[in-house]
Records
---
Amino acid sequence: MGKTAWLFPGQGSQEVGMGRDLAAAYPAVRQLYDRANDILGFDLATLCFEGPAEELNDTINTQPALFVTSLAVLQAMEEEGRKPTPALVAGHSLGELTALAAAGAMSFEDGLRLVRERGRLMKLAGERSPGGMAAVLKMEDAVVEQACKEATEQTGKEVTVANYNSPGQVVISGDKEALERAIALLKERGGRRIIPLAVSIAAHSPLMASVVEEYRAVVHDTPFRLPEIPVVANISAQPLLSVAEIRDELSGQLTWPVRWTASVQYMIEQGVTRFVEIGPKDVLSKLVKRIDRSVTAVSVGNVESVQLLEA
């Protein structure tokens, strides 16, 4: 019998209305949002349930909103007795912090404070060093990496691969001038589907470096313990085996790429045949299907999908 892995989404999966039906259906979910409101000192629940979208999409709010909503889905799964035991867990970018909390490596309260600070600092880095990101589809990784290298050399500013999402789908990130040059080079080399993303930060790039030490201090002060379920890291695509490794991973994650393809492939090599994406939308389950069509991937983000999930 195959194993199950839990996956937790990152920025881009947020949407106004997320969590609303879960909070109405399950008192424990409503209590989780209430706890989040108390910890943060503002009404995160209403922001998730009603928006406005512009405020929800602000990095400083998006990150805690997704963290709480994904854990709210997990709470609903538990209430319904539809919480399959995972062999491994992983999260994409911000989702890695949700994965760590879900695996018992940090408390909800400590995790939420850390996520809020991560969002604040990433927003600050974007203000200090404005940049952008773009999705590149149907091109070889090596071609994209070479274009980023040349664009960096030609402009004297940095652009790099931020996310290896699936074969033929990567995201590049960096200074706007270097990003535009990389896009031009990729188009010269046959790139036809290059989509600028609606973000003002250059996540997982050297442009985040200005806040890394401040974030590292916050990570250092956050109490961690070994996870009860192995968490596969974004940077190494291997399990995090100690608290020191968790702290290094989270600190380094701001400037290093998310190796999502390699992470999913590692989990499949360990015998995982079913992936359950826990949170709004279905971004990660779609990526899993592009990485390996032999496995199953489902997304769980509302009452209906929770009740349909096979435990």
---
Amino acid sequence: MSDRESTSHAIGAASLCAALLIAQQVGAKTTRDTLFLENFDVSLLPRTLAAAAVVTVVFVLGAGRLIARFGPARVVPAALVASGVLQLGVFAWARVAPAPAAVGYYLLVAATGALLVSGFWSVVNERFDPRTARRSAGRIGTGATFGGLAGGVVALVAGHAVGAQWLLVLLAALHLVAAVVVHRFGRSGSTSADEENEPGPVGQGWQVLRRQGFVRDLAVIVILLTAGAACLDYVFKDFAQQRFGDGTQAIGLVTFFGAFHTGSALLTFLLQSAFAPVLLRHAGLARTLATLPAGLALGAVTLLLVPLWPVAAIARAAESGLRSSLFRSAYEPLYTPLAPDEKRASKSLIDVGGERFGDALGALTVQVLLLALPVTAPGETLHTILLATTAITGVLGLLMAVRLHRGYIDALERSLMRQHVKLELDEVVDTATRTMVLRTRPADPDPATEPEPPRPSPPTEDPVLKTVEGLRNRDAKVVVRTLAASTPLAPELVGHVVPLLAWDAVAETAIESLRHTGPRATGPLLSALLDEAEDFSVRRRAPRALPDHHEPWVREALLRGLEADRFEIRFQCGQALARHHVHDGTAVARDRIMDHVRREVAVPDTLWRSHRLLDGQDRGPRFVDSPAVRKAPAGLRHVFCLLGLVLPHEALGLCLEGILTRDPQLRGTALEYLDGVLPADVRQQLWPKLEVAERTPRPAAADPDSALRTLMGSRERIRTLLSTQSDESTEPPQS
């Protein structure tokens, strides 16, 4: 048999195995829930779920050691055989002691279900080379989807015919057959554990969580959503037990859960095939991932308003379908910025620790409520609290998803620029990642314009090397002449000019040279701005060297620069944003700017008065230019510059000039305008910086518009007063 035929047969066997495993998993969930609720009240579910979380962690740690030592191709078939035998043992146990057997099977499914599926994918990754594995993932995934549907249908039909206990025999057979298939297609792969697929050590996973903020956010999202799903699951199963658990209905629990899991599998298939590719391509990873918290919150609120068992089933099925389709499609690519060893370590920690901690947290919430609520309290009270908790976790998950997007983009850009990860465009499914790959990859040469290899010729002096030599000269006059002759800079020279921003004697010339170079200098300048290890002089001067025309990603980098520890870096980033805003009128998120304003005005007065501009080159806010404003405190100029990004900048400029006058009437009118346009907490913190008491009397203006009209009519008077004050201190006097 040729290698191609062998690979094709192996992919077919892997698809069959995926179908068997997912069919078994869906049937096992039906059997697990049925056996438990037939023998116990739903109030015992939280304690069982917490115990299952502990057992799962123990099993996973043990399985990780075995896989690392013997390889998944040997461990997974043996684990499948052991699972099949244990399920037959549970069947025999259930014939004589159904209640303990139900608990034992719940723990067995929790400990082995996801673990065996994860081990199967390790065998796939070890059996095929990376390119074949990527290309075969769709075919294998189709087998898994078909298996989920088939498993639900078989559980529904067989469970209704013979009961939940006899389903254990069928489920054991599925695992035994899967063991044979895994052994056959996995044995031709590597016989030792593939280092790229071994789970990383837990300690390394914690290090990744400490270093990578977006990974921490992802872990928090997983914990929140798992805890919320556990609360929703309790309410759903309580409805199911009340409706179908008394034996008086035409269908029993096994039929109900079989139909439920079949519907969930069908919903997963529809969402994955119809919506996942479109959402990933147009909405991006974070928004696609946010569909799960949104669906979780919406389902909980709907069930609060319409507390009926069909609504509970729909809400729980929607959560399950979204988690297994859209959420999972966005979740896996979010690890792209991480190196392979970091990915293995952190993903293992989040998948195992995060989900199990979320299960335990949800179970603890339910158990505490069961103990805290009076015995006479109606079940509706417990349901209301749990559903409200679920809705809150969904909303928090949505907020975390917004933050996750920014962290993911930043981490991906750093990884691509430093070549920690390498991506091909055909591997990328979402727009944000494709954009970052295109932005950071070197341009491919055009074969049509690529010059022929040069013929041997006498050695000549390289003009680029000569220019670099001039830029590195210790004589400032030589450097200035070289910059003047080289502007606009060639791409290979930009990296040699950016460090010159730290040299006071040539910094202004370097700034002009970089600014006239245009977009090709933008990337290195922003990298220097955001690099905390870079020289402070380079960082504070980099925003001044940027061109006035900014792309959205440049504006985002400047907004991040507003978070710097040093005031002058923040000041210069604000000036660059103001230049862009005045030039193009591009809107900036109001809430984000107001958060930066709050940070600036919250500093102690001593620190506020110590703000200085070391270069002394920049003027005031770009929307106002007068001697009085240029002499105003740097902190005040920076705050009004930021406010001008989200408020009418001409009005802000006139207002600042009015505040700087010594005329009480004009100052009061300017303050009246600020009263109407600033949030209360910003105004309360800004007033002391203006040396104004909160209750300072001001003219009775009907509204901010009236105050602004008064200021506009007094423009000439304000300019005259400021002109007479230009040689005096412009510190705002006491009102």
---
Amino acid sequence: MEGPTTAPTRRDPDEVGALALALLPMGVLLGLDPGGWYPFGPVKWLALVVLGGGGAALVLWHRGSDLPRPVGLVASALVAWLAVTAAVGRDPWFAWIGTPERRFGWVTWALCAALLAAGAARPRARVVVGGLVAAGAALGALTSLEALGWEPPTFAVASRLSATLGSPAYLGAAAALLGPLTLGVALDRGLGRPVRRVAAAAAAGLAVALVGSGARAAWLGVAVAGLALAWGRREALRAHRRRTLASVGVGLAALAAVAVLTPAGARAAALLDADAPGGRGRLDEWRVALVTAADRPLTGFGPEGYRTAFHEGVDDAYERRHGRDEQPDRAHSAPLDVLLVGGVPGLALWAGLLVLVGRRVLPALTSGTPWRTGAVAGLLAHVVGQLALFPLAEVEPLAWLLAGTLLADVPWGGASQPALAEPAPPRTSAAPARVQGRRLAVALVVLGSLLAVDAVSGVVADREAGSAARALRRGDTRAARVAAERASARRPDWPRTGLLEARAVVADGRGIHRGLEALVRARRWSPRDPVLVRAEIALLVDRALATGAPAHRDEAQRALDDRLAEDPRDGSLWAEALRLAEGTGDRAAAAQARARWEALTAEERRRG
């Protein structure tokens, strides 16, 4: 006689959504494509769109929105206002979807707000927080291996540790957010032993990441969070004075050892070096950002618009010290970046959101379960670190998701819930919240479907661009041209594929004119992109010198004059003006261009 059969269990949408949100940290922190030209970007964007947007949609559809009303109103107002600034911003396309390098257009702000709402919708918190811990453990393990000498070619992007983030600063930001959380989970005796062991390993690995990344913004954030935690728990520390003094002594000894035995000490000392990246030169960046922001205090320049307006705040002193070898596109300070993106109203809404969330979650620094205290400390470290960095599409969504989870754990005006408690059943009485959540879910599905197509095409185009770049390096110009043309055709809106196609067709002997055509097509999507503008001018000068035709010389001169009228302090433009004048025998123009070029690049040439 056969035994009873068990019907297969079906996962409800809430559980699937929570699982997607749990996998999100893995996707955005660990995702990479070794075959891509930019291996750390397109795959992470795909993970954010599919796992973040899809998971948030499922959770909100099933559970509704539990965001405290003031938080929800301010978050919605921020997203709505940034839509306005995107519509009137300086970049008509990337203001919405974000540049392929940064990916922090309006849609990323909207996804962050959706993740905040999804975290507060009380999904299965064990699953969501467990995903953050697991991602921290994996990231810490990979970073530790890199510190021990295992560095695949994909990781070799800087002298400091970067792991799967592609940037030491990004790695430090991730470690600052997740390190305190994993430490809190490891110390929480109310949780299971396996989870605590994984969290302990994660905390150790993330400590390596924090130190080895040399990310001083992250160090500042963790230091402030530690001091805030010590102040909040000062009564308990006084009650155990000897243990506290011993811990402080061990901590100071550890810091001294790190400063002496690792490059961290030299990295900290470089803050006083005006020539070092991120040293006193950061003050110059902030000064330029403030001057630029003053031109459009109401709406700012829209998401991703600062790179097109940066030159408006540049003075001779900045140009002499730093030049334009790397085009600045961020102010390296979150408040300034938000001001540039959304003007004074955007900054006020963003700051108001921080205050509303902070007022609710910060008390956990003084009283709360260890995992919750660690999570709040991680958020505080993240926010403080952003004062010297900028919002990252790889890290910021995780911070908003974690903040939402913390808001759900303590009701607005109620008592604390058990740590990492499983959610209550879906509410049948809170009809408005359910309706609002389903509206958000539908909007996410529509937006996410479009973004998923964008993300998949981006991954494919980046792999084709990677093939082109590798072919160029080995001298196979025909293969490089074919692959670059495919990448550019697939993503004609990406400036970097247009630049790559221009390089490849010129290298393959197809003529400067074909290269100019590639740049013109790319500029249709972002007419003000400064890198494209400079590349086009350089090719116009090349063509004028190669052909000697008066029409080509006049076209190059007009392009130079137009751009120099808009950006008279760009040393690279004066170098092109000098090249054109010398090549055409215009001695007076050459003397003027040389004098201006030497004045603007003297310090940069002295250092390099």
---
Amino acid sequence: MKQNPRQQAILELSATQPLTNQFNTKQSSTEVFGQNVFSEEVMQLRLPKDVFAAFKRALDAGKTIETRIADVVATAMKDWALEKGATHFTHLFFPMTGGSAEKHDSFIVPTRGGKAIEQFSGKELIKGESDASSFPSGGIRATFEARGYTAWDPTSPAFIMEGPNGSTLVIPTCFLSYTGVALDKKTPLLKSQEALSKQAGRVLQLFGQPVERVITTVGAEQEYFLIDRKYYFLRPDLVMTGRTLFGSGSEKNQQLEDQYFGSIRERVLAFMQEVEHRAMQVGIPVKTRHNEVAPAQFEIAPIYELSNVASDHNVILMELLRTTALKYGFACLLHEKPFAGVNGSGKHNNWSMATLSGKNLLDPGSNPSDNAMFLLFLAAILRAVDRWAKVLRVTVATAGNDHRLGANEAPPAIISAYLGDELLAVVDSVVKGTPLPGKTGGTMAVGVTAIPAIPLDNSDRNRTSPFAFTGNKFEFRAVGSAQNVAGPNIALNTAVAESLDVMTTAIEKEMAKGRSRNTAVNTVIKRVLTEHYRIIFNGNGYSAAWVREAKKRGLPNLRETPEALDKFIDPDVIELFTTYGVFTIQEVHARHEILVEQYVKMVSIEAGTTAALARTMILPAATEYLGMLAATVTSTRAALGATAAASTRAAAAGIARELAALTRAIDALEKALAAAHRSADSEVIAVRIRDRVKPAMAAVRTHADILENLVGDDYWPLPKYREMLFMY
């Protein structure tokens, strides 16, 4: 029997014992955690007391580190790194590509006499120079204006990344143009944190609390798929786009629900253990691992960290997943929808606010003052989600996430907030002036009567809500698995800062009229909750009834990326970001242009790959099989007569029809793609791609997937779903 590369891969996989002993350590997790991090503890041991104290004061206050302090820190950092085996250092930055970037420089500096010394200065720590010409800028600078700068972010600790032949000191940084314009995702995230801290500080002051820096914390759960690398390299669509552009679902997918939280296969567990070890070494606080819903799908989840640190760590973790997978013969797929017909992958962004001393501002507490402050923060967040729903939607708008949102496996594109029954009852009591359930007497007066203690698990989880309160945090579940979480958190921080500003100003005006603080707070909270009550939805976000209800409420339903991205340059959105110093007008327009171009480029690559694979792999395979059937019909008719050949002739006729239909669909796709690009306006191209190219791609896939089920197994060149998802 004929054996093609796909079948050969299956035989090799079945005959090979998977390597599960690539990694072994007897260290405890507490010994491993942070062992390669230049942490505050390490700094305290290595820096003079006055230098460490000055560094800490600047860090806690969000101030610039003085050059003289940076020089001492740099020397200590270099000595520590050399002891850890580092030979190079790099400024890690996060350009608008969505990933990370780095340029490695040696510590070595030549001296006279053919010798060398190892050197690292405060200037090198604080600022680096990189060629910025080939990174997306959205028109901020011309291609010939190549200079870009990296600027040290001291709030995100430096660390050692161990490599196969040495180690590198990695310093998380911002990335700026020659004129100081942000070319990255970290810089605006830091600015959004400062904006929120300033407005939240006004709330603390209002309630007589110690005024200190307020931080936002994030825990980013990461979903991903693992498939055997032998299959991966036989799937050019996975190599080029990160997802399968063809593939008929296997008879078994996830319908038995036996993958979720199931026993983890030994090979996968070995991979997970090494990822966790390497992550903990660099200070990523990974906590949870488990099988996800879809076959061959998994999740890793960390504990909460400062937002910008969590964002850095998530990008690093994605890279660790990809690189470690190679050692175990896997390919790690981070695309939001690598396989049709089974669940895609998201990244749940668990977000909260806390003071620098550790007080969680989204903890309801048990006394009237805490209750009132919590309700003020809650009302501000609900107002932010309602008022700036379109901004939050923009931050999760990508070509990959379009396949996932609203697909009965992820939240819908309609942004709403889930509170749970107990907290909703509290909100209803404020809005409607009704007694709290189980309470006797009058209605609740904010700041006077205590809210009943709300346990962390105060209600069942709502997996269909894009933005759900889960005890002492909100979970933004619409973020795509391949995304940098910086974008959603920039929007969330800025929107909440604006709401806190508006509400605190309104309370101050009420108090200026002679009203007491409690009365003023109660008045403003009630007004805001009433005006933005429409954003609260505790029901099934997947239902068609919710789509109709959301429309009735006036909530936006931005179903696909092009229509969502248009909202990013609305005048009120630009005003939001510029007012709070997060983006300039130029930076908003630049990011809009970059996001539109990324959508156009990604779908265009998918469309070109679809046409190429269909024409050069699927058509030839089906044609060859059809030729074999035709020869069989001829030989059977000659030997046994026309009746005996009838079934084979019918099968051949069916394949011939699909081949003709597939050929027409490929032609139509190529024409649609060419026509879409007959414009100089990327927004016009994006709309054409959405309306014409994507349907044309779907048509090609439909006929190709039908052929997969008609063509003999030994002729089909692409690894099938039943192999990729179950044989590993």
